[in-house]
Amino acid sequence: MTPARSIPFSWAMPFLTLVTGTVAAATPEEIVGATMLKLAPQIKVDVVQEASAPGFYEAIVGSQFVYVSKDGRFVFDGSVFDASNARDMTEVARAKQRQATLARIGVDKRIIYGPAKPKHRVIVFTDIDCPFCRRFHQQMERYNELGITVEYVFMPLDSHPDAARKSMAVWCAQDRKAALTAAMNGADVGNDTACANPVAETGRLSREMGITHTPTVLAADGTRVSPQAAMVPDQLLAELDRLAQAPVATK
Amino acid sequence: MSRLFPLFLLLLLPSAAAWAAQADAARAAMQKLAPMQQLKGFRLSALPGYYEGIIDGQVVYASLDGRYLIRGQIEDTARGENLSEASMAVRRLEVLAGVSDAQRLRYLPPRPRHRITVFTDVDCPYCKRLHAQIADYAALGIGIDYLFFPLAAHPDAHRKSVEVWCAPDRNAAYDAIMAGTTLERRQCANPVAATVAAGREIGVAATPTAIGPDGRVIPSAVLMSPHRLLDELNRIAMAGATAAAKEKTP
Questions:
Q1: Residue B240: per-residue pLDDT
Q2: Total-model pTM
Q3: Does domain A101-244 have CATH number 3.40.30.10?
């Protein structure tokens, strides 16, 4: 299933003209552009693609998603759900959009806690001084027991002035995993931040993806898991099982 | 004719059945969003290719085959109108039509020109401020029908609403309680549960929430200013008259 596929222009154009009559040879970009110009002249549309909702284009503006009907008349900025599998298709489109950026945060830029027999993988954007991040980390054994690999990406928040230093100190430690666990338990990890580390880069890339909170938990395909589900190991497993039934296609 | 009739029926049946099956799928998809709530206002939408319905105080749209659901406010850029809000307005008027005058606490001016419905909570500061101006609204010909909508945040508001309702002179009791007086404890049959249910059904979440004669929620800044409210109600009345005249001309 590829719900957010790009449009084959060659056949879409004559078809559109046939259906709407009035829109002569306008590309999807032109249709969406003309409509957005009426609503918010200053914004720049980055991508226009076929939406899963029939009759609509999906326009991406920064990290925002806007839907415009194919005749350019109707607009909404809410979500599209696929009732057949209870998936939020707007979130699926967001996940696809994230994949490229996520690929730039390689495993060499993550701290990975993996079980012997991994079943699922999550990417967790974390901040050492965020209380829910600590609570999440305390349950690591249980996540691993359930077959969930946790791949941490550092995203120190501006509201925690020491978090960046602590993240770098963890990265520079001999045993990163042990150092991170110690830091999450409140231990002093010192000031040795002199090594090459990805903290600034991962923080920037996270924000580029529109991630603003920690912990943010993404399934391996880039789908965001609700924080409520992510904080309870058994619920996270159930959610990952559900998402695995209809994974977001890789671009 | 009598021999042709069954033939007609045969021609009609398949499409009617297909329509019903589609509609059922769309209905079921919407219902899944809030299984415990009643789906209302289900119909083909002005948004081409979609059904619409109201559930949990919100308009939702389903593709004709019932597979895709849209949650969000649909803007019709050709008419400069919010379709979802227009549908909610129709629904609000339907629900308010189901609340009888006997369930309302009415403040009628001597020469009424306009009438609005206000969901009120006796412990909400803005509701008190609004009521402090009741004479100003009356002077401008604006009648206010209050519907009790005690909020969960105000634990005594429900009891106090019942005390107002059960007083020998309801309007005097409401004036008194909104001015800070404590009322005598009373109980009697009252419409509070019914007005709360009506409010919830149309998405009322705060007080005061005022609904105009066109079914729209009146912005609070407009509501709180008697003169601005009068301007707005005059505008609504004009727009309604124009629309009615348009419908009459062939």
A1: 82
A2: 0.71
A3: yes
